[in-house]
Every structure is written in structure tokens, then in C-alpha cells.
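Try this one yourself first.
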């Protein structure tokens, strides 16, 4: 053997061997975790077209025999992990699955031993053939293929991403790891394979060589034109600068005579130059294989070929190192080790980043179902009902339930308020000519609701100055409040109409007395209008309560299972709230029936309001009927300032002159006449009392009674309706809610565990996503642990 081939296939540098061994062992362990699907791990991928001599190259490197039956080709990746050992030769065959039988990626790579350890090289070929069958038929038990020698007529798959792993060790084995990929297909016959196989194999090869840390071992057969071999085109596509491609020329003994010089340009790196150069190897011929020569004989014959065959033997010493398998193996081992050392810090950083991202993705998923779904659902329902109780009691937040209800309650109060009877202390003929301003005592008491104008003149008397508008005693300027009550208000009620109604209602009463039925009819007129505002309020509150409860259901149940629990709880809540609504409506009807008969024990407030309204109506009527007299009296009692220039202390520059004394006015004359009659205690303010009584006085009393009762009744009714709705509908939601949930869901019965398990099931898509992420995290953590055990 020549000096370039004396190592017998094993590395000659012991330091290189030691470093390579350490790095290769680490990468092999990382590959075993399956993390290569997540992280770009350094590896060697052997690619080439079919019949490019890949199998022979693998045999020369590994020392084993690959299947060579007619029509046989590599149909799945074959990963070879070679390690030099002083122990006897052995081979362990395993199957590594990264996809399931449907071709879907597994969360974590699964490695299965395929048979016992092999110590006889003659058994390797058959074991590899059977292992490949098991890979191509993933749905069948692996044991079915371990002893069977017959080929499967119609395998489930023509090619697969899952791989056969060979762990080979022995005294004549180099420290090296590589992956033999299926050969690229130029065409498919109708009897074997299908048209999709070409693209399938190309995609499989591409998945490996596109990674930046993949060293491409490109095999090119010298018996075929270089340009016609698709593997070199694919390698150049993903490594255009040739930085990570190592070329291997095979079958140099089949080069037509005179064409050797065309291939020598590759060895000299003149044609298609690569950073790690081109190599050439000579593998056993067909006759050699028939003779079943040993691996050592094959290496010896290779050395003899390159040493004795021109033009290979004529190459200078510099290029001789690119010939023979041993030199190729040593270079591959060196390049792979250097790449591993370079990539290790980057791999650690990439692992840490990937672990953080995977954990973040896992945490973003809905909570994983527990092993005790019954207890989990019971806990969830209790937390939910406690949250409902907190919200119906009130939370200090703008978006709280009670805050949302309050505007509706205020609209309801105003809706009841505007049903006040619109009494006018003037006759119908004066409508549009006389005006009634809002009483000051109501303005102070209730504020200016519904755009109330004050309309109050602080001048003496019961009312202010007249205005062009007609602000009534219910606080607005509109005599028709249909927008708030939803019913025809019937317009204003004038005093003559009240008196006429009272007179028509008299039966056996004594003169001057009128039956109470008059007041009762007017009271019924406004209480009959309270139903619509009440119904509107309870409907609005029902809508708000329902929306709020559904939001709470979503808050607590949205991330549970497939959404079935959320949907069922919402349905239960809807039924429960509707039952609360029914009870609230019954309470409202009961309250309305109570108000059908006038009644109050609040005599103090009733009497106070009655006196105020009587004075208010009477004062307004007096101003309209006796306006001129009241103005004369007001002017008479108003103090009159005396000009200084006409007083007793006038300027000395002017002659002193006594002020002129005007003659007595009409008011003065009346007081003087009364004094003549001996009525000396009469004041100007008492003059209206001398006038004859108002014939409308009975109507004023009726109007005051009705209006005073309205003030007492509407406040009472407004409070009671709001309290009834709050008790039955708002706070009522909390009562018996947990009982309704348990009873309807059926989780307290014998089928409770089964029901809870069904409710807790998450969607298959989410479960698959969680499984993928957990598998990925496990791969990443396993790989990280392997790195921590290595000190470089």
C-alpha cells in the first residue's frame, strides 16, 4: 500500500481521533433526542443519483454490506454512527420515527431497537433490508418484519422520512457519522413506484442539505456525464459557493479510455471547485462482489488501482491525498469535528432561545385538563358564582353591573315623574294666554330634571313674572310627555274642568261637598301610566344582567375544554335569569295593583304638599285674576327713595324748598276709608281678603289633594319598583345559582365523573398542538442536558 493509504481506514492522528470521538458522540446523542427537527445540528448527508455508487461508498466507509437485490434502492434515510473500538466488531440496528403512520410529525422522536446486536457482518444486509420494510409499513408490528425474508408486494409507503440507524463499532472502524439518503430518481417506470416519487425523494434530500450545518457528501459516477447527474445541481442550489460540499468521484475504472483527463480537473479542484476539494474512490467491481472479497481486500485493491493506474498514479503528491477511501474518511471526520466545535456555542444559544419560545407558546394555550376534572369543574363553578355574587353586590368600577343599571333607574324615575297631572289654575279659555311657572318648592326639592327651567322670580308673591313659555308643575315646558310615558297624556287639566267633573260626580252630598271619587279618578289616571315605565325598566335590567352574567361565564369558562362547558353554563344562566325576571315581573304587577287604591300613612308629607300646592295654585290664580290690584298693593308698600336735592339737607347754593306731598292713591284711599270706619288695623296686604270668595275654591282643593298625593305615591312607587327588581332580578341571580348549575349539569350524580371528563376534553387540534409543543420542549431539554455534560 502507498503512504497515502496505510491507515487501513482508521484515522492516523490519535489527537484527532480523540477529539472527533468526543464531538461525534455528543452529536449522536443529540440526534437521538430528535432535536435535529428543531435545531440545525452538524451532520454529513450522502447524496447522489441512483447508481452513482453511493452504496459502495457507504460499504467502503462502514465495512458492512448493503442490500443489493435487483430493483433494491435506499428508500429511507440510513444513519451510520461509526466508532473506533478495541472491542470486537458489532452493529446495533434501530428504527427512529419522527413521523407517525399518517406522515404527521411526532412531538418527540421515537427510537426502537430492531433485533439483537449483530456480531456477524454477514447478517447486516438482511437486517437492514427488513428494517427498511418495517419503516415503509409503519402501521404493522415491527416484529412481523424481524424474521420475514419475503418482500412486501405493496408497501404502504414508497419512501419515508423515518430512518434506519446503524451503530457500528470495531477495531477497523473510523470515528464518523453520516446519513445515507435515497438516490435522486431521473425517471419512474410504470411498474415500480409512481410519478410522485421523484418529487418526494428530492424534497427529502432537500430537507437535509438546505440546513447550513449539513456537510454535503456529493457522489458523482465517472461513467456518466457530470452535467447529467441531478445531485450536483441540487447541491449547487443550496451551497452555491461550495463551502460545505465535499465531492466524491466513484467508478473511476469505468471511465472510457482517453477521457480520464476530464475527471482529473476535479481532483485538482480546477473544475467546479469546492472548499474541501473533490476526492476519488475505487470500490469493488461486480466480479469482486461475486467473489465476496473482504473489506480489507477491497481497500488493498483500491490502493493498487490508484498506485498503478494512469493517470491517477501520475498525480503529484499534493493531489494524491484526494485519492482513496481512507483519505476521504479522515477528511470527513476532521471537517465534521471542526464544524461541531464551531457550532456548539451557537447550538447552546439556539436551544435556550427555543426552550423559552416553546414554554411561552405552551403558556399561551388554554389550561391543560387536569386528571381530576370533577374537582376542577366544581372549583371553577364556585369561583364563578362567587364572582357573580360580588358583581351583583357591586364593584367599584365604571363597567360594573350596578353602574350600568343606574341610568336605567334614573330614566324610570323621570318616566314616572312626568306622569304628574298637569293641573292649571285657570279656565280652558285662557290656555295660551296665561302661564304657570314651576313651583319653587319643587325646584329646590327635585332639581331641574328633564331640562327644567327655573322660571322663578324672586319678587314677592307666590309666583314669578309671566313668561312666554308654559313651564308646568311637573317640571318641563311640554304639555305632552308621551316620549317618557308611552301613553297619551291627555293634555292639561284646567280648573273649570276639575270643577265641572266634581259637580257631575255629586250624588247625595250636602251643598259645598264633593265625593272623593273625583280625586280617585285623577289618581287612577296617572297610576295607570306607571306600567309601561316599570316594564321598560325591568326589561332593561334583565338585558344588562344577562349580558353581564354571560361575560362572567366567558371569563371563567372560555379556556375550559372545547367550549361545551361555557355553552351549557350560559344556557343555564339564561334560564335562571329568565326565572328571576318572571318573579320580578310578578312583583311589579303586585306593586301596580297596590297603587290602584289611594292610600298613605305619610300624613305629614301629604299635608305639607297639599298646603304648598294649594298656595301655589291659589297664588297663580290670584295673579291672573287680581294682577292689577296686587301690583298696586306691591307698589304702595314698596319704600320710595327721596331725592337729596329736594330733602331738608339740600345744597346751600339752592333755595330751601319743602318736598311736594302727592295725593293719596287708590290703596291709600281704601285704607283711609277703612280707618274712617274704625278698621285701623287693616294693612295693604289685607285688602285682597275683602274680595268675594273664588267660586273655583273647591277645584283648587281637589287639585291640591291629587297633586300632593302624586308626590307621595310616585316617590314610594319608584323606590319600591327599583327595590323589587334589585331583590328578585339583580340579587336574585345569586340565589340558588350553584344549585341550578349542579342540577342541570348533572355533575353531582353517579355520572358526574364521566360528564366532567367529557366537558374537560379539549379540541383535538389544541390537544395536538399541546402535544407537539410538549414533545418539542422535551427534545430541547434533553438536548440541553446532553450539552451540559460536555466540557469542550
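Now uncover the answer:
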Amino acid at each position: 500500500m502507498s503512504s497515502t493509504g496505510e491507515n487501513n481506514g482508521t484515522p492516523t492522528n490519535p489527537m484527532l481521533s480523540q477529539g472527533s470521538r468526543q464531538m461525534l458522540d455528543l452529536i449522536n446523542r443529540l440526534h437521538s433526542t430528535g432535536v435535529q427537527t428543531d435545531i440545525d445540528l452538524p451532520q454529513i448527508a450522502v447524496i447522489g443519483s441512483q447508481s452513482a455508487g453511493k452504496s459502495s461508498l457507504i460499504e467502503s466507509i462502514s465495512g458492512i454490506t448493503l442490500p443489493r437485490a435487483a430493483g433494491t434502492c435506499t428508500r429511507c434515510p440510513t444513519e451510520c454512527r461509526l466508532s473506533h473500538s478495541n472491542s470486537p466488531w458489532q452493529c446495533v440496528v434501530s428504527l427512529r420515527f419522527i413521523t407517525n403512520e399518517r406522515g404527521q410529525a411526532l412531538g418527540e422522536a421515537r427510537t426502537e431497537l430492531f433485533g439483537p446486536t449483530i456480531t456477524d457482518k454477514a447478517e447486516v444486509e438482511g437486517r437492514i433490508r427488513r428494517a427498511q420494510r418495517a419503516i415503509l409499513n409503519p402501521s404493522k408490528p415491527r416484529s412481523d418484519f424481524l424474521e420475514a425474508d419475503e418482500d412486501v408486494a405493496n408497501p404502504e409507503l414508497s419512501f419515508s422520512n423515518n430512518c434506519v440507524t446503524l451503530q457500528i463499532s470495531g477495531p477497523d472502524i473510523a470515528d464518523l457519522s453520516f446519513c445515507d439518503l435515497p438516490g435522486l430518481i431521473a425517471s419512474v417506470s410504470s411498474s415500480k413506484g409512481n410519478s410522485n416519487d421523484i418529487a418526494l425523494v428530492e424534497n427529502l434530500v432537500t430537507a437535509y442539505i438546505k440546513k447550513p450545518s449539513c456537510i454535503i457528501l456529493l457522489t458523482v459516477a465517472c461513467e456518466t456525464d457530470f452535467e447529467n447527474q441531478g445531485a450536483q445541481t441540487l447541491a449547487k442550489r443550496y451551497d452555491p459557493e461550495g463551502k460545505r460540499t465535499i465531492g466524491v468521484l466513484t467508478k473511476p475504472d469505468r471511465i472510457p479510455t482517453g477521457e480520464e483527463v476530464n475527471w482529473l480537473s476535479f481532483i485538482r479542484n480546477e473544475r467546479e471547485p469546492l472548499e474541501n476539494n473533490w476526492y476519488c474512490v475505487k470500490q469493488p467491481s461486480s466480479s469482486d462482489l461475486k467473489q465476496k472479497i473482504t473489506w480489507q481486500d477491497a481497500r488493498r485493491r483500491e490502493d493498487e488501482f490508484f498506485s498503478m493506474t494512469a493517470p491517477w498514479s501520475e498525480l503529484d503528491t499534493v493531489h494524491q491525498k484526494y485519492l482513496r477511501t481512507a483519505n476521504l474518511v479522515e477528511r470527513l471526520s476532521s471537517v465534521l469535528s471542526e464544524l461541531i466545535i464551531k457550532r456548539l456555542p451557537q447550538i447552546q444559544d439556539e436551544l435556550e432561545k427555543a426552550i423559552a419560545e416553546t414554554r411561552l407558546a405552551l403558556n399561551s394555550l388554554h389550561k391543560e385538563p387536569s386528571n381530576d376534572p370533577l374537582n376542577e369543574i366544581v372549583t371553577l363553578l364556585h369561583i364563578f358564582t362567587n364572582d357573580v355574587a360580588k358583581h351583583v353586590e357591586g364593584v367599584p368600577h365604571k363597567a360594573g353591573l350596578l353602574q350600568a343599571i343606574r341610568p336605567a333607574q334614573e330614566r324610570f324615575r323621570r318616566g314616572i315623574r312626568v306622569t304628574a297631572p298637569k293641573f292649571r289654575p285657570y279656565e280652558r279659555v285662557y290656555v295660551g294666554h296665561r302661564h304657570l311657572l314651576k313651583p319653587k318648592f319643587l325646584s329646590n326639592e327635585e332639581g331641574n330634571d328633564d331640562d327644567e327651567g327655573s322660571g322663578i322670580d324672586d319678587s314677592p308673591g307666590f309666583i314669578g313674572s309671566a313668561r312666554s313659555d308654559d313651564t308646568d308643575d311637573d317640571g318641563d315646558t311640554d304639555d305632552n310627555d308621551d316620549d317618557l310615558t308611552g301613553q297619551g297624556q291627555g293634555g292639561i287639566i284646567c280648573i273649570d274642568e276639575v270643577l265641572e267633573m266634581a259637580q257631575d260626580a255629586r250624588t247625595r252630598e250636602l251643598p259645598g261637598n264633593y265625593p272623593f271619587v273625583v280625586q280617585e279618578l285623577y289618581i287612577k289616571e296617572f297610576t295607570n301610566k306607571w306600567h309601561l315605565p316599570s316594564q321598560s325598566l325591568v326589561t332593561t335590567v334583565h338585558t344588562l344582567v344577562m349580558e353581564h352574567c354571560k361575560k362572567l361565564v366567558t371569563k371563567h369558562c372560555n379556556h375550559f375544554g372545547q367550549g361545551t362547558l361555557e355553552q351549557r353554563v350560559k344556557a343555564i344562566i339564561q334560564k335562571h335569569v329568565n326565572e328571576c325576571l318572571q318573579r320580578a315581573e310578578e312583583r311589579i304587577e303586585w306593586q301596580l295593583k297596590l297603587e290602584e287604591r289611594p292610600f298613605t300613612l305619610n300624613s305629614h308629607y301629604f299635608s305639607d304638599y297639599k298646603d304648598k300646592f294649594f298656595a301655589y295654585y291659589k297664588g297663580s290664580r290670584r295673579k291672573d285674576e287680581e294682577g292689577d290690584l296686587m301690583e298696586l298693593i306691591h307698589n304702595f308698600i314698596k319704600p320710595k327713595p327721596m331725592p337729596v336735592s329736594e330733602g331738608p339737607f339740600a345744597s346751600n347754593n339752592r333755595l330751601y324748598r319743602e318736598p311736594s306731598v302727592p295725593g293719596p292713591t287708590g290703596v291709600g284711599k281704601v285704607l283711609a276709608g277703612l280707618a274712617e270706619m274704625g278698621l285701623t288695623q287693616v294693612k295693604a296686604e289685607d285688602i285682597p281678603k275683602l274680595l268675594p270668595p273664588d267660586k273655583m275654591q273647591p277645584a283648587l282643593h281637589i287639585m291640591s289633594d291629587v297633586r300632593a298625593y302624586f308626590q307621595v305615591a310616585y316617590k314610594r312607587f319608584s323606590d319600591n319598583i327599583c327595590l323589587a327588581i334589585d331583590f328578585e332580578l339583580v340579587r336574585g341571580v345569586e340565589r340558588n345559582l350553584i344549585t341550578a348549575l349542579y342540577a342541570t349539569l348533572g355533575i353531582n350524580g353517579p355520572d358526574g365523573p364521566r360528564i366532567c371528563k367529557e366537558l374537560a376534553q379539549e379540541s383535538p387540534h389544541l390537544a395536538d398542538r399541546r402535544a407537539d409543543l410538549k414533545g418539542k420542549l422535551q427534545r430541547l431539554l434533553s438536548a440541553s442536558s446532553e450539552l451540559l455534560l460536555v466540557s469542550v
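Discussion: Residues 562 and 762 are 5 Å apart (CA to CA). The mean pLDDT is 83.
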